[in-house]
Design brief:
By secondary structure, this protein is an alpha/beta fold. The chain has 2 domains: about 160 residues, Rossmann fold (3-Layer(aba) Sandwich); about 220 residues, Rossmann fold, CATH 3.40.50.1100. Helix content is about 45%, strand content about 15%. Strand 5, helix 5 and strand 6 form a beta-alpha-beta unit. Helix 10 packs across helix 11. The termini are far apart. The relative contact order is 0.16.
Length: about 400
């Protein structure tokens, strides 16, 4: 299929983006997922629901988030002008609040009593706990023990907000295992709970639903960038784990053939199994957590171990729409390693006074590599998907001495 052709009509009625997506779940969940799909399809066009959501975005989250020209960073690189979509300035500190409010509102409208979810870096967990507190819902958050140790500030925030944080002790004790156990927890009572998936992954309708709640990022950015510069950005960059912040930015620009789009995956510490999470770069089509996508998998179709310094990126699968966009060539997927991401974390902090999340630092790192290759009349727009408060203790303890701390 030609890049951009039919993108606005995806997914199809079965939840497929080309060959990816769909719903492959236990029989007991088919009727539950149909109920969620039907409720969402009704509410997405409901004026009262959209008015309430937009009001919360404005008055509670603080939207629109600004677009900021990183002039000092751009000048230091001597190439393209770099701009940041400041999702780090949202209430709760990341883009995750955009879809968490949507999912929590949906749960409330459906009469659910509890929202349940996984979290890696903790930003989805904090955002969902926040939305649950606001709307009077119970909240269970599953989080791997490794990530609990790395992201302690976010664990404390979730508990303050009233969420029940459930440590996951199986496997590598990170994001994939958190998804596994959250899914099992959901199966215990799918009638009274809504699994509020934290990215554009999972069975239909979640990749579509989370994308739709996140697309406000790109819609705002498009209008803001035109107002600032009189034209569209030449390049978009966003980090990709599951891929929600990236789809949030990319969706508004997919049909603009003159806009080059880059998704940035974590190369970790190497390209051996368990050293990276470059799913789109090194994975193959397969199935994980009830949907088809690119997967880092072994010969038996089992997910391989993955790793990233950024807890929100170490997932062996990826959103089905990203898988489709890779295949048709509309988005280029690149890899950034831990050292490059940490260097970018400190560079943005010290040159622009903005401490990014380690996930977002991967996108910044790729912009730092790309900008000098482009002329000064070209532009780059990065989705700065989150702030780095959650990462500060971990960074200082493990890398501080290398950066004079």
């Amino acid at each position: 299929m030609e890049a951009g052709a039919g993108l606005k009509t995806l997914p199809d009625a079965q939840g497929f983006f080309g060959n990816y997506g769909g719903s492959f779940v236990p029989e007991v969940l088919n009727s539950i997922l149909k109920e969620i799909t039907d409720a969402y399809m009704e509410l997405k066009d409901d004026r009262d629901f959209q008015t309430e959501l937009k009001s919360l975005y404005r008055d509670y989250v603080g939207r629109p988030s600004p677009v900021f020209q990183a002039s000092r960073l751009s000048s230091s690189l001597g190439g393209a002008q770099i701009y940041l979509k400041r999702e780090d300035l949202n209430h709760t500190g990341a883009h995750k609040i955009n879809h968490c409010l949507g999912e929590a509102l949906l749960a409330k409208k459906m009469g659910k009593k509890k929202v349940i979810a996984e979290t890696g870096a903790g930003q989805h967990g904090v955002a969902l706990a926040t939305a649950a507190a606001l709307l009077g819902l119970e909240c269970d958050i599953y989080m791997g023990e490794v990530d609990i140790a790395k992201e302690h500030p976010n664990v404390v925030r979730m508990k303050i907000l009233g969420a029940n944080v459930i440590p996951v002790k199986s496997g590598l004790k990170t994001l994939k295992e958190a998804v596994d156990e959250a899914f099992m927890g959901y199966l215990k009572d799918p009638v009274n709970q809504l699994y509020a998936i934290g990215s554009v992954v999972g069975p239909h309708p979640f990749p579509m639903m989370v994308r739709d709640f996140q697309k406000i990022v790109g819609e705002e950015a498009r209008e803001q960038f035109m107002e600032k510069t009189g034209k569209l950005p030449d390049n978009l960059i966003a980090c990709v784990g599951g891929g929600s912040n990236a789809m949030g930015l990319f969706t508004a620009f997919l049909d603009d053939k003159n806009v080059d789009i880059y998704g940035v995956e974590p190369a970790g510490i190497g390209f051996k199994d368990g050293e990276h999470a470059c799913t789109l770069t090194l994975g193959t089509p397969g199935m994980i957590h009830g949907f088809k996508c690119y997967v880092l998998q072994d010969d038996k179709g089992e997910p391989k171990p993955v790793y990233s310094v950024a807890s929100g990126l170490d997932y062996p699968g990826v959103g089905p729409q990203h898988s489709y966009l890779k295949d048709i060539g509309r988005v280029k997927y690149e890899c950034i390693n831990d050292k490059e991401a940490i260097d970018a974390f400190f560079t943005l902090s010290r040159v622009e006074g903005i401490i990014p999340a380690l996930e977002s630092a991967h996108a910044v790192a790729y912009a730092i590599k790309l900008a000098p290759k482009l002329s000064r009349d070209k532009t780059i727009l990065i989705n700065l998907s989150g702030r780095g408060d959650k990462d500060v203790d971990y960074i200082v303890e493990n890398y501080g001495k290398n950066y004079g701390i």
